[in-house]
């Protein structure tokens, strides 16, 4: 049961954004490129790659170019976001173990994956976590789906994201998503059973000519607030004027700065410590 997030609103926002999403979400593409550069330092030769929250599949061409022998599956909860041509037939071929060059796509829940346990070598997720109630269900499903020695790699947004927008409102409602702190994400990875987690962050500052341009970008990327305690009706003129005044006070060199705190994380699926009935596994080193 969800307490904070309106999942129907999340789906509505991305369904509405789907026709133009591939052109609108330039920030997701930039972060994807930075994530893929981090794979330069990872020793991994995956056979199966799963992209959670894949949207229109923008990450998979780069991953396939890097790992040409891998089979790639993109999963997204909102069917309208998926590349239509590959949706049903490609998924069935993927399940049968086909070696088609093109990725397969399926609509599904990242917190309840339609995958066999220990089937994937790399689970990839670019900016999906802000649209979940909390990260642990996804982490648990990723752990279950990964082979021993498999890698989870993700990006998400941290608490300073859109801080200028939050500071400009004085009405007590949520106007952005809740964003997890990177230290909490590291603790969650360990708690759910991952090994050797690495979590770090950077700040990207975008600039806009005016407030309507920022709000239009957020709508086009499906990134408007979907919290249950968001404002449901239209904001009054006074509230909007206050928001515009706040942003104008931040203007530098003719542009309005907007902060995005980007968190990157990866962790490995270790050897199991217990068998299914709960008994511990004890390993003895040979001489």
Shape, principal axes of CA atoms: globular
Average pLDDT figure: 88
Strand content: 15-25%
User: What's the CATH H-level homologous superfamily of the domain at 7-161 and 176-203 and 262-268?
Assistant: Vaccinia Virus protein VP39
What is the CA-CA span between the terminal residues? 52 Å
CATH topology assignment of the domain at 7-161 and 176-203 and 262-268: Rossmann fold
What's the architecture of the domain at 7-161 and 176-203 and 262-268, going by CATH?
3-Layer(aba) Sandwich
Residue share in helix? 25-40%
Radius of gyration from the alpha-carbon trace, in angstroms: 20 Å
| Assembly state of the chains shown | single chain
Low-confidence stretches: 85-89
User: Which structural category do the helix and sheet elements fall into?
Assistant: alpha/beta
């Amino acid at each position: 049961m969800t307490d904070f997030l309106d999942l129907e609103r999340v789906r509505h926002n991305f369904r509405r954004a789907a026709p133009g999403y591939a052109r609108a979400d330039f920030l997701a593409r930039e972060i994807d490129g930075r994530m893929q550069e981090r794979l330069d330092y990872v020793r991994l030769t995956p056979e199966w790659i799963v992209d959670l929250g894949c949207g229109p599949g923008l990450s998979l061409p780069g991953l396939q170019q890097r790992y040409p022998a891998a089979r790639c599956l993109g999963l997204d909860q909102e069917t309208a976001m998926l590349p239509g041509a590959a949706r049903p037939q490609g998924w069935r071929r993927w399940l049968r173990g086909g070696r088609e060059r093109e990725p397969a796509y399926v609509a599904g829940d990242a917190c309840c994956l339609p995958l066999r346990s220990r089937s994937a070598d790399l689970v990839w997720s670019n900016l999906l976590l802000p649209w979940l109630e909390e990260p642990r269900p996804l982490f648990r499903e990723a752990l279950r789906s990964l082979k021993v020695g498999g890698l989870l790699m993700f990006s998400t947004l941290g608490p300073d994201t859109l801080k200028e927008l939050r500071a400009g409102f004085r009405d007590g409602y949520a106007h952005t998503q809740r964003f997890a702190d990177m230290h909490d994400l590291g603790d969650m990875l360990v708690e759910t059973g991952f090994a050797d987690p690495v979590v770090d962050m950077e700040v990207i500052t975008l600039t806009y000519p005016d407030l309507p341009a920022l709000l239009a970008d957020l709508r086009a990327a499906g990134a408007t607030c979907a919290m249950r305690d968001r404002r449901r009706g239209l904001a009054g003129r006074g509230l909007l004027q206050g928001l515009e005044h706040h942003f104008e006070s931040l203007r530098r060199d003719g542009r309005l700065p907007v902060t995005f705190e980007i968190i990157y994380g990866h962790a490995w699926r270790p050897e199991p410590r217990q068998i299914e009935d709960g008994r511990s596994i004890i390993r003895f080193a040979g001489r």
